[in-house]
Amino acid sequence: MNVLTKTLGFSVLLILTFAGVTYVLPQMEGAAPEEIELDVSELTMASFVAMGEQLYHGKGACALCHNDLGRAPDLLSFDVTSVSLERLADPRYQGDADDAETYLRESMVRPSIFVVAGFGTKGSNDALSPMPAVDKPPAKLSELAIDSIIAYLQDKDGNPVTVSLPVEATESEDDDVAAAPAPAQSAEAVLAKYACSACHSILASVSTLGPGLKDIAKRQDADQIRNSIINPGAVVADGYFVAMPEFPNMTVGELEMIVEFLAMQTGEES
Amino acid sequence: MAFIALCGAGLLSPALAQAPQAEQLNILVETVDSADEVSAALLPAPTPQRSDYPNIGASSRNIVWIIAQMHLFFGALVLAVPIFVLVIEIIGFKTADDRYDDMAHEFMKVSLTAYAITALFGGTLALSLFLLYPDLMAYLMRAFGSQVLVYAGLFFLESMLLYIYYYGWNALRYGNRKWVHLTLGLLLNAVGTTLLVVANSWTTFMMAPSGVDPATGAIIGNIWEVMKGPLWNPLNLHRFIANVAFGGAVVGAYAAFKFLSAKTPEEKAHYDWMGYSSNFISILAFLPLPFAGYWLTAEIYAYSQQMGILAMGGILAWLFVVQAVLICTILLAGNYYLWTGMARSEGSERYRWAIKYIATVLILGFLVWVTPHNVIYTASETIRLGGGKHPVLGPLGIMPAKNIAVFLMLICTFLSFQLYRRADKVITVSWQEWGNALLVCIYIVAIVNIFFAGIYYGYFTNTVYKVGSSVIQVMSTVVVIVSGVIIDTLMFRGAKQLQVTWGKIADRSQYALFALPITFTWLMALMGYVRSSVRTHWHVYTVMPDNSPDNFIPTMQTVGNMVTLVTFLFLAFLLFIFWIANLSGTRQLPLSAGRSSAIAEHAT
Q1: For FRET with A62, which of B171, B438, B549, B598 sits at 20 to 30 Å CA-CA?
Q2: How many residue pairs bridge chain A and chain B with CB atoms within 8 Å of each other?
Q3: Which 8-state DSSP code applies to residue B600?
Q4: In this predicted complex, what is the ipTM?
């Protein structure tokens, strides 16, 4: 073997080894927020709170810092409403809020008004917050979106939601919350609507990204299938990653249709 | 015109060069002639819709990704090589050793061929950007204005200096003429570095825009305010150092290829020495690179915590596992080359015992570094594990453990280098025992410090202190390197020089010299992608959104495929450059010699 062949072979092998490492990592995409039309006239308090939860974990990127890694107070680990009232009573507090709702709103749009001890920008002696104002880029949340996050933070601890539902007829909302389209009318339509075949082999489609569903009934009963759809991360088939999204807009009718359909998939031709 | 007027006003008036306040904007408004000019001057950043992006039937991002990366690879090479070539030339001049001069000239030969390819990719990149991202380019042109013409002018100057420097090498070789040549080299590097920092300002403006109205993206600062964003200098330093490491590695591969192809002991000796010098340059530049990277990351965090966390703790964080593999490969290859290189001197027998311990630390460090914080487990695995994180390995997944591993690996690499340098010497100074004892003490204190800072601040304090602990570790490592070099330099005074046989090294060692540029190339492409991706769906962060079909962060596999593709392309072009560089030293024998198609190597 000549020098060129040997050195080239070595180099190619090394390059492919590095490429191989990326194949064993979890595969996920980071989608950009989409501009969608939101019909606020159909919002209920429950869907408003759900929208706040999605924004908290999605476009608002709150969970990026507010988690258990100590970068910012972990808002999901304590009662946000009662802690907000404690903060208002703190002698260091110099803001304008007078209740939990206004405190939370103020914290989001003017984060440096009150910085929790130990969480300020390095060198600022807790006078400056590293948190960006959420109504400015990059998050650039609307008032409606901010209200929905406050509603979520109040609701998650069982406190009464004091934020009022929006009353405008229709508002363009730049967020991650998908408007609910019309419910699907058949199991096949549900499969198409939620793009199940993109990852799972089912009916005529073939895909190996997720476990095949053509014989799912041999492995799971209807309750297990239902649970897997409602909470995709609860049980993950060996050899697969948690890549399946949740379907917050799936109606109960759609869920039952698809569960009933999958519970009959034994892999045998009918 | 209005923008140029605005820049001009800002440059002429110190008052206008300050942060753009509302009253200053009013002053600016008064300085321009008409209402149209006012509105043009304060034109907001464009917000193109999806339909505004030209569709040529392929992913625009991928096209620009490939071309930009190729331009960056070659740009890095042609800017870096003259830096260390000048240093080698100065050494040759001071020592009156022609070998240094010849080696520097040969390095430049590789760089010269790469220069034309750099320019070709640069031109293609500009055309691609204007074609595929017209709104972004219109905005950037508005932001940087006539600065881009200054860049073009510098490019002309760089070309002229480069050609004179290379082709004038032998004409300006000795005496006072050598000073002229060295001055040309200095000018070449000054212009090259200026080109680098000018181009960097475009990149950092997109990541952390300055001189703009944050609400609208309107350009309200002068060109200096637009350029000197918070990330500019950290990126300048990081790229400057990384380019030298990369350039050293590439010419090292050239030397390795020539070594393996060499027919005579003289050739082997020459290219062995050239390979060693290249590796020395590359690893020496690589050692401070993590510190420059730390500064850049710290500034990213300071500018936008969200941006920093996205890179280090969000979706992009997984790529740092790949980075760990790459950097460990570089360290292992660099160390392996030094260990095998010890065979050149009989004196190395005194230090061979240490290699197995250094290797053990490097491998343990590698294992800690690649341990992820958490892995997505199946339900049955989670139950068997007793939670989402492994009880023993889990704590190794966070940064403090990785920092300990990284700094110990850097210290070990320096130790390998130190032992290599001592291998061909017998130290004769009377205080050598005290000197060695001092060195050992410095190593011990630094290692204890690194462990203490990592464990105490990393696991027993909150996040603010965790980040701060890195500074202690950086300083400990720097103290080892700096004091090691100083103490060794003093101890080598009057040392007995042992025989070094250049060319006496195993062929397998040369593959380490191939591993270095391959890994550097992959690493540059990967980390460049991470740096660029932290902007997420923004062309210019927070002021100009990216609404193109490619405005999402792709999967790790996709990133791996793209990086692999550009690395293959670079390798192919590199082979072409090596072939061209070799071709210039080849001369066909006259046909009358009886070999109608014979080609013979002709020493130049």
Answers
A1: B549
A2: 146
A3: E
A4: 0.84
